[in-house]
Amino acid sequence: MIRGNLRDVALSSLLQAMHVDSVSGYLRVEGGGVLHIVDGEVVEASTAGAKGYDAVMSLLARRRGSFSFERATPAASAPLAPIMNLLLESARLDDEWRRVAGYVVRVVDETRLLSDVPCLASLVQWIDGRRTIEELAHLSGDSTTDLVASVRLGISRRVLARVRSAESEATQSESEPDRDYDELLACAREKIRDGDLEGASRCLHRALARRPEDRIARQNLRRVAALLSSRPQTPSNQRSE
Amino acid sequence: MSRSEQISKLLKSLTSSSADVEAAALVDNDGLMIASALPADVEDDRVAAMSAALLGMSDRIVRELGRGTFELVMIRGSDGYTILVRCGPDAVLSVLAARTAKLGLIFLDANRSAKEISRLIM
To answer: Which of A197, A216, A227, A231 has the highest number of chain B CBs within 10 A, making it the mutation to test binding with B?
Structure first.
């Protein structure tokens, strides 16, 4: 039995190590859920509110909590998705969450809110034009991925609108300038040549945040992930919060 | 138009110049795709990985055997050709062509495209 805390080692790092060693067993996150792993692949996952792929994404978003891994032989089944695909999608959602966590939204059309966007039902009581998305996540208990999806849907249906305050606009102008997509890809390639794979990964995540469906950025990110996973694991390689 | 859009446009022009050119991609030495004109059923990772591997091998062979610097390599399979053309020091143009392709024309188009792309990426 292996035990630890997600503050010290990320779930994504654990899954990568298990994939490399083709281990089988149950990876439990206290208060979160459980992943069934067969020969290094995730074949099943469950949390209180989700199963399968959604449960994996929900668990990968967690940064706190103890985990335990018990070697066993879960029922064999087809992988939910290749490990790298799971990790890349989780990283993309992570990036998206970091971008939107500070947004504030308000209700624009109350009459259509529940009929057009029923997934907002659990949030509507807390949306007041002052609370950030992150605060809404704490209050509602929704997973961050579900919350971002619900808010995006609400904005696209013009039921919600983002509140842009003078303060938030000032913060945006102080932050890193919006880099051209091409520049981000070129930056990533340069960092790979310099051996800075983590830096390359960050550039590519930013590029993907601008163009989520872009084939080139996705391929580049998969390549970086493959290079990272083939690199020997040292304490400095592990992600910490 | 951004640089990547210009390169993509050149690649699309290459693939549409002849029905025998099935796919084209610009890949760097590390196996990263820079631009592509690949059909949806062609795996980006496979093209990039094979191109980088073939580039590395070809570079080495040319150097080891005293043939100067690598410029172009062609592999003929029963179902078509794979052609790699150097595009500056850091990238290579990969072209997949049908078995019925007229190689002279393919080489001409590929070399022209490689020269234009080299100017854009330098």
So the answer is: A216
